[in-house]
Design goal:
The structure is a single chain. The protein has 517 residues and is an alpha/beta fold. Helices cover 38% and strands 22% of the residues. The strands form five sheets. Strands 9, 10, 11, 12, 13, 16, 17, 18 and 20 form a nine-stranded mixed β-sheet that branches. Strands 1, 2, 3, 4, 7 and 8 form a six-stranded mixed β-sheet that branches. A hairpin with a 4-residue loop joins strand 5 and strand 6. It is elongated and about 80 Å long. Zinc ion binds next to strand 12.
């Protein structure tokens, strides 16, 4: 890829009759280096170098620390300074501020501040170097190679496939001398997983249709074919399964629905009950007959974020060879208005026989998940976790700070919560009171209504209560990711766009489950 692009650039330059030497300089590999510095604790003032930065400084006989002093008294967390020409191997060196070395897990913030600072700083350093057209960056482990790798790979991602002018492609490498190669590799895998989810979510809905989504995942698991099987179930299969709720959403669209089923067999005991992950896969949500307003409707190309994060987590689990069995389910369809579309007031029958009055066709996520959850229960999983961009109300409640978790299991909550403290992609527990159940089981025509009786109030909670009607498992969690779906600048190490959250938390959760046996 790089070679092809280089060749194309050369051809373009020759065409413009640029001097040969200029293009030659341009074609050379431009190497950069990201090094970290901590703020000294309050009373001391100044900066202190990470191990890698200190040994780099030593090879330059203290020139780096001297230049840092000249550049200014401090370097704030997440800020960077660039030094040119100080080392023959690295024309550009970015020194990044890591905050205080004494940071760690913070109870109030529910994350590890030190890890977050490393992600932010490394991401910022890599981005500055990318702007300078550096195409290979060595990265200081900053004392936590996994977080450093995540910062680098997440920070450099941008979706520019469809633009003629692309950002410089940057490869990254752990700065030599670091012993934490395994952690670095893990961090790369976690971040690449999240980037896969970002790619699927950001891509336009005319590119990522249900069929294209399923094909992309099939391609991405192909390298792990000995442990992963993929089933792309057709509309005929969905009909056989009597998934009437799912079909009622898909029927308005010309695009055929797909029910994607992934089996990852990583546990030494192939018969070990699986972890079941279920993701909402609405590749475009127009609202259907209950049409959404056109402003920001384009964001609904990411309404398959649940399916994207779930499938990306399974691809990542396979890449990491996690010793656990996982089944992934993704009901994939479009929600569109048409002469065939479901109408408000229509009644449909879910796989478990429950009837649902569809009073709002825009509350479609819970319909497709209802059938997927019934199907998922047939595998007797050790836990079921479903992930969905389910309600605007979730965004109103927590914004992008954390994914809302509704669960019937304290154990499952603990697992998810602990995983999220490590990844920094947080979760927050939400209620599953009968109070909400009453609001969805009061329907004029059917067993359930797909919107709560008091429509707007507690919208995220009534949606969760609705899903619960299709679950029999003792350990089930519903993750509403509508609030964390996209990023403006809230998460400093993710550029603006669809976030791929909480893929890393799902992977970490699966890894913990794997290693707890
Ligand atoms: N996909 C949307 C929820 C959503 C909104 C996700 C904004 C991300 C950002 C979902 O299908 C939906 O439309 N929900 C309705 C439910 C309502 C009709 C009860 C909503 O939240 O307005
Ligand atoms: Mg909707
Ligand atoms: Zn939706």
């Amino acid at each position: 890829m790089l070679v092809v692009r280089k060749a194309a650039q050369t051809a373009a330059r020759k065409h413009l009759c640029r001097p040969f030497s200029a293009s030659q300089t341009h074609l050379q590999e431009r190497k950069g280096l990201v090094l970290g510095v901590f703020e000294k604790e309050a009373e001391e003032g100044g900066l202190h170098l990470t191990q890698a930065a200190a040994s780099f400084d030593q090879t330059l006989s203290g020139k780096l620390s001297e230049l840092l002093k000249i550049a200014g008294p401090g370097l704030k967390k997440g800020k960077s300074r660039i030094f040119y020409g100080i080392h023959q191997d690295f024309p550009c060196v970015a020194v990044v501020g890591l905050g205080k070395d004494s940071e760690g897990i913070c109870g109030a913030e529910n994350w590890d501040t030190k890890k977050e600072n490393i992600r932010q700083a490394v991401s910022a350093g890599c981005q500055v170097l990318q702007e300078l057209e550096v195409n290979h960056v060595e990265v200081d482990d900053c004392g936590d190679a996994k977080s450093a790798a995540e910062g680098a790979v997440l920070g450099l991602f941008s979706y520019d496939q469809l633009k003629s002018k692309k950002k410089t492609r940057v490869t990254t490498q752990l700065h030599h001398g670091s012993a934490d190669v395994d952690d670095w590799k893990k961090g790369l895998a976690y971040a690449e997983g999240q980037n896969l989810a970002r790619f699927l979510m950001e891509a336009p809905a005319n590119h990522i249709t249900p069929t294209a989504f399923a094909n992309t995942i099939e391609e991405r698991v192909a390298p792990h074919a000995e442990r992963v099987t993929v089933n792309k179930r057709s509309k005929a299969w969905i009909e056989e399964q009597q998934m009437g709720a799912f079909l009622s959403v898909a029927r308005g669209s010309e695009e055929p629905p797909v029910f994607l089923e992934l089996h990852y067999n990583g546990a030494p005991d192939r018969k070990q009950p699986p972890l079941m992950l279920v993701g909402k896969g609405v590749t475009f949500d127009s609202g259907g007959i209950s049409l959404k307003p056109s402003q920001s409707m384009d964001a609904m190309r990411a309404d398959m974020g649940g399916a994207a994060t779930v499938c990306a987590s399974i691809v990542t689990a396979a890449a990491l060879k996690l010793p656990v069995n996982i089944i992934g389910l993704a009901p994939l369809c479009e929600n569109m208005p048409s002469g065939k579309a479901t109408k408000p007031g229509d009644v449909v029958t879910a796989k478990n026989g429950k009837t649902i009055q569809v009073d709002n066709t825009d509350a479609e996520g819970r319909l497709i998940l209802a059938d997927a959850l019934c199907y998922g229960s047939t595998f007797n999983p050790r836990a079921i976790v479903n992930v969905a961009t389910l309600t605007g109300a979730m965004d109103v409640a927590l914004g992008s700070a954390a994914t809302g978790v509704f669960t019937n299991s304290d154990w499952l909550w603990e697992q998810l919560h602990q995983a999220s403290v490590v990844t920094g992609d947080r979760v927050w527990r939400m209620p599953l009171f009968q109070h909400y159940t009453k609001q969805v089981t009061d329907s004029q025509l059917a067993d359930l209504n797909n919107i709560g009786k008091y429509s707007r109030s507690g919208g995220a909670c009534t949606a969760a209560a609705f899903l619960r009607e299709f679950v029999t498992a003792p350990h089930w969690a519903h993750l509403d990711i509508a609030g964390v779906m996209s990023n403006k600048d809230e998460v400093p190490y993710l550029r603006k766009g669809m976030s791929g959250r909480p893929t890393r938390t799902l992977v970490e959760f699966a890894a913990r489950l794997a290693h707890s046996g």
